[in-house]
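Here is the promised in-class demo. Please do not try to memorize the tokens; focus on the logic of going from shape to residues.
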């Protein structure tokens, strides 16, 4: 039990989730879903991304979505931004935060953003100097921070170096992204401990994908190292279209379910989340990874199966006959 420590849950389904969907989710449906999620108690919602519509056609309606949603007090509305063009578009929509993105691995940066890491850094440095003249917060998401599907292991020192370069530019927060689910708990614990020690004033977020079933285990390791902010995706949607083998983020309802059982205070309404998650298949045209949506919450009890004529529960009687 960990008392009632506050944990900040940041929803990314309409960005990390929808960016990876083949079926275009209508703008009105995106807005309705975000409005519904805004009432669920999240600390932050990553609404969309201001990327090239050729690169991410699923989010080509970013302006319309940002303008269409109703803002709730207490929710930070953030958007992913890869370059200056994206930052200008985002600022024109009254976002609370821009979430700048680049990769720690050179190969993934080139695949995803079509430029070198140094070119990305130079563009993001320009973006930061523009955004700093406004009251919009700046977060930087470092992709492939715990492994790259093309390069393999990523040295912890390299992750800390990129964090340092952005910290030196005065960003508010940094997100460490396990883009293709390569992280494992002891690695996460060591990285998070080193990051919290060195960057005590940065708001740190961990962004796990469940590609190899380790996202909740990695979350526990990050919590142990003092992390209190997590990205998560409703239904377990998610994945970078430019990272080979990428699949869904840690599932928000499963994350909240686990954290609340362990006594953490997420402020998220799990029942409302589950009913929102149940809508996803109709929006994207397929089932979602969420186990919790299928199984129900831990104490959603079942009726005792009816007894058959010999007094045994029906299923057992059937198995014994078979
Ligand atoms: N928003 C809208 N359009 C953009 C844009 C942005 N942020 N950045 C570039 N464009 C447009 C340019 O205007 C240009 O349009 P044109 O072909 O009609 O002239 C075209 O995209 C190419 O521009 P260029 O600067 O050469 O970019 P690029 O083709 O090298 O692409 C990125 C670079 C970063 C814009 C692109 O790779 C991208 O958006 N990647 C997003 C990756 C992503 O979101 N991955 C998943 C999340 S991690
Ligand atoms: Zn992601």
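The designed amino acids, position by position:
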């Amino acid at each position: 039990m960990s008392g009632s420590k506050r944990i900040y849950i940041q929803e990314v389904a309409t960005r990390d989730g929808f960016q990876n969907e083949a079926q275009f989710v209508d703008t009105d449906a995106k807005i309705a879903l975000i409005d519904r999620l805004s009432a669920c108690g999240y600390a932050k919602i990553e609404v969309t991304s201001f990327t090239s519509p050729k690169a991410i056609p699923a989010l080509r309606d970013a302006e319309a979505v940002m303008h269409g949603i109703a803002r709730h007090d207490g929710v930070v509305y953030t958007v992913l931004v890869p370059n200056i063009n994206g930052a200008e578009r985002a600022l024109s929509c009254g976002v609370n935060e821009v979430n700048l993105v680049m990769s720690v691995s050179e190969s993934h940066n080139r695949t995803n953003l079509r430029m070198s890491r140094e070119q990305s850094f130079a563009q993001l440095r320009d973006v930061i100097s523009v955004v700093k003249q406004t009251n919009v917060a700046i977060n930087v998401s470092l992709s492939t921070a715990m492994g790259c599907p093309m390069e393999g292991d990523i040295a912890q020192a390299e992750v800390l170096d990129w964090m340092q370069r952005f910290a030196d530019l005065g960003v508010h927060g940094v997100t460490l992204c396990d883009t293709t689910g390569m992280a494992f708990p002891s690695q996460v614990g060591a990285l998070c401990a080193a990051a919290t020690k060195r960057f005590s004033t940065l708001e740190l977020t961990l962004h796990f994908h469940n590609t190899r079933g380790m996202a909740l285990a990695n979350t526990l390791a990050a919590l142990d190292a003092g992390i209190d902010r997590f990205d998560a995706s409703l239904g377990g949607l998610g994945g970078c279209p430019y990272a080979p083998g990428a699949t869904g983020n840690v599932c928000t309802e499963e994350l909240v379910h686990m954290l609340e059982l362990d006594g953490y205070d997420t402020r998220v309404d799990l029942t409302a989340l589950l009913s929102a998650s149940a809508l996803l298949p109709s929006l994207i045209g397929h089932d979602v990874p969420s186990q919790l949506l299928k199984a129900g919450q831990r104490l959603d009890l079942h009726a005792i199966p009816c007894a058959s004529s010999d007094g045994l529960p029906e299923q057992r009687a059937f198995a014994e006959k078979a």
